[in-house]
Amino acid sequence: MTDVHDRFRSLDRVRVPELWAEATLRAVAEPLSAPQTRSNYMLPVGLATAAIVIVLIVGLGLLWGPTIGTPDATPTPEATPGSTSSSPDPSASIPLIQRMPGSRSNPAGVYGWTGALGSSTGMHNVVGLDDGGGRMTQMVFAVEDDCFASGDGPEPVPVTVGGLDGTYVEPYDGPGVLFMPEREEGQTTGAYALAIDGRTLCVYLTWDPSTTADELDAARQVVESIRGEALGSGLRIIFTLPQGWDTG
Amino acid sequence: MTAVADDLVQLEAVYREEAERLWRALLAFSRDPDVASDAVAEAFARAIRDRAAIRDPRAWVWRMGFRLAAADLTQRSRANSQMPNTGYLETEADADLLDALAGLPEKQRTAVILFYYVDAPIREIAEKTGMSQLAVRANLSRGRKRLKHLLGESR
Questions:
Q1: Helices vs strands, H then E, count in chain B
Q2: Which of A166, A215, A226, B139 would be a feasible disulfide site paired with A194, CB 3.0-4.6 Å?
Q3: Alpha helix (H) ranges present in chain A?
Q4: In what order do the strands lie in the sheet with A199-207?
Q5: Is the model's pTM score more than 0.90?
Q6: Cβ contacts (< 8 Å) between B19 and chain A: which residues?
Q7: Which residue of A has its CA nearest to B41?
Q8: Are B23 and B37 in contact (CB under 8 A)?
């Protein structure tokens, strides 16, 4: 019945919908009686309502809260440039969200990004505006073959960051390393090239002269929390953010 | 990073490797892309929720997917209110094959799909369905004969 085998191959022509995001949304919603109604499965992530987002945040906190705690990867201070103190103690009820943070007011939690080779994204944490000044920490993620190919800096030094091997350059400057459009006077960028699953994740961390040691350390903890895997030509990563980072 | 986040990365890897074949297998099982989509999304949602208790998530999502799809078909059959959404499939998949599969009892259909489409051996079919290997042999043998017969009739 070779012919039957061939006829089954016709199934490969049918396009398969992407359902992972739907599965993760369902996972944090109230348990459903199986099977679910057909009206729910097509729910596009982009149309997820604020209510669902709230369920996502609250639900994950309830569902996974007890098992989420301090990142299990132990920083290696001697190999982590600028690491000044022990890791922060995240809340025991950190929500798990697999996307980049939104444009404002994001809670602490696990976020994520998927990037193809050559793509990048960024975020920042602005603090102290109420004091009349304000200072900013910026972080840019990029998937590149060589994170230091087009910029300037000293020789990269080997580092191990949260269990990931890589290299680090400080100070560093080059195209695409800033989240904000222009570099301001006194800002410093540290550039990581981290090996993940056969790909290279570039992390460009930039801070102001007035950024405190604790703030910089918290930003480095974000880098240390990064985990990922290869996806096509690129990477999918997840990382833990304290409150305050946004993409606005 | 957390153990939970690591679990989620691993489960998504399982999704990336298994979901397309599972969805198409469930499409063959149900002839309805809505049933297939609902079963895949719900199976992985439950895998995320119950991850600590699942030893082999690859086999587990297949078992759960077929269970959910079968339950959905039963429910819809009882309600008798919704016809399968098969319109666009006729230009993509082999409609005669899907019709013939629909004529098989549920367990025979499952075994035949896993054998022909997934190329799974008896042991793997047993793992993916929860049937014993003897039951798989029996259902596969009967299902293949019946499918051959039905395909002959449908030509």
A1: 7, 0
A2: A166
A3: 2-8, 20-28, 38-41, 50-64, 213-224
A4: A157-161, A164-169, A188-196, A199-207, A135-143, A120-127, A245-246
A5: no
A6: 16, 19-20
A7: A23
A8: yes
